[in-house]
Amino acid sequence: MGEVELDIPGERLWIRSDIICYGDEANNDLSQRIAREISGLWNAGKFSVRVGGISYLVQFEIQGFYRPGTGPDEIHGNLNPRLNFFRIEQFVRGDISFVDELGSNTGYFKLDNLQNGSGTAAHEYGHSLGLPHPGIMDYRGQGQPGIMHPRGTWVDPPFQWDPSALPGQPGGTLNPAKRKVLQSDMDNLNLDKLVYSSEGKGVIGEFTNLFHDRQ
């Protein structure tokens, strides 16, 4: 979820999100690294969209914060569209990080998923903006996989864990660190369909505001 602002003179469309991390495995360094990963991947392509007949360069301003005292009352009462709350733990049911629903501002990160530049935080951030998985688990022959392709997707050899592995065999699926944000991901945000105020501000995503206990 994020706050959107049209900078008409500068021809930029800003999406601003704060990632609030809590839980036993959260810390300040990890919170900052999550924010850098999201910012780096979502800003890397210098993508543009058209809103109201004007072409805007889309720019993401992402900040990460460690708040160990985060509790249910703070999250349930949140009215700031910039704030996204993620619990971080070693164990997650289903063994995978998640957001509570598409376009959600809350979720749960599995610590191991966040290691080695996996792109998991950037992937889940895409879900928080409303993007689903593409629904195509065999992406061979299509080249660069986008940020929203899930683990287990069949891809061309350069994008596998092991380029020499057979598709679907150990090492023969998508290495999540090989994902990138594509223009198609930006187009699918439907930023031209958001409702903007007279000051050029809007909101992408929804308030789920769910607090997660440790699983």
Structural description of this entry:
Helix 1 crosses helix 3. This protein has 4 helices and 8 strands. Strands 1, 2, 3, 4, 5, 6, 7 and 8 form an 8-stranded mixed sheet that branches. Helix content is 16%, strand content 24%. The protein is an alpha/beta fold and 215 residues long. The protein folds into 2 domains: 146 residues, 3-Layer(aba) Sandwich (Collagenase (Catalytic Domain)); 49 residues, no CATH class.
CATH fold naming of the largest domain: Collagenase (Catalytic Domain)
Radius of gyration: 17 Å
Q: Biggest β-sheet: count, sense, barrel?
A: 8 strands, mixed
Give the assembly state of these chains. Answer: single chain
- What proportion of the residues is helical, as a percent range? 10-25%
Number of strands: 8
Q: What is the string of SSEs from the N terminus onward?
A: EEHEEHEEEHHE
Distance between the termini: 24 Å
Strand content: 15-25%
Label the CATH architecture of the largest domain.
3-Layer(aba) Sandwich
Question: In a few lines, what is going on in this structure?
Answer:
The protein is α/β, with parallel strands linked by helices. It contains four helices and eight strands. Strands 1, 2, 3, 4, 5, 6, 7 and 8 form an eight-stranded mixed beta sheet that branches.
Give the helix/strand layout.
Blueprint: E1 2-7, E2 12-22, H1 28-43, E3 48-51, E4 54-66, H2 72-76, E5 83-89, E6 98-99, E7 106-110, H3 120-128, H4 183-187, E8 201-204
Parallel strand pairs: 2-4, 2-5, 5-7
Antiparallel strand pairs: 1-2, 1-8, 3-4, 6-7
Helix pairs in contact: 1-3
